[in-house]
Amino acid sequence: MQPGTGSWDPLFSVMYTKDLSPFLLQADLTYQLTTRNRDGYEFGDSFTANIAGKYALASYFNLTAAVTYLHVNRAEDRDDKYTDLTILMDDPDNTGGDSSWISPGIKVRPFKSIPAAVDLKAQFPVWERSTASSWCPVTGYSRG
């Protein structure tokens, strides 16, 4: 799939943050409502729930942690333009599922005069329920 295929997929989000210095707690929910593109394919709607926390060890160094749950509905290929039953990834029946992961990390603000930070996180799968063998739990690392 390429961007610009004619689908319109709005996001609906709500977030709550509570500052309990030196702790910060945050909870957020996001729902993505997908629509069919002009070729008849529709990715599954998705729902994400996230609970995160931050502990400030110093004004420039924080420990972070999050627990995330993701649900994705099955995709639909109304006209079978993208369905190839010989390839697991190209069969809409092999799309969708549920997963959960934890994300510990650190956040460092090296310069007080510059409003920027380095955020390092790792993602570790905790649980998954997939509709087929196309989903695989993967450990991920990010920086930013």
Describe the sheet with the most strands.
8 strands, antiparallel
- The strand count comes to 10
Instruction: Report mean pLDDT, rounded to a whole number.
Output: 84
Shape: elongated
Overall number of structural domains? 1
Global Rg: 19 Å
Q: Would you list the SSEs in sequence order as H and E?
A: EEEEEEEEEE
Describe this structure in words.
6% of the residues are buried. The chain has strands at residues 11-20, 23-32, 41-42, 46-58, 61-72, 76-77, 97-102, 105-108, 118-130, 140-143. Strands 1, 2, 4, 5, 7, 8, 9 and 10 form an 8-stranded antiparallel beta sheet that branches. It has a two-stranded antiparallel ribbon with strand order 3-6. The radius of gyration is 19 Å and the shape is elongated. It has 144 residues and is mainly beta.
Short description:
By secondary structure, the protein is an all-beta fold. It has strands spanning 11-20, 23-32, 41-42, 46-58, 61-72, 76-77, 97-102, 105-108, 118-130, 140-143. The chain is elongated, with a radius of gyration of 19 Å.
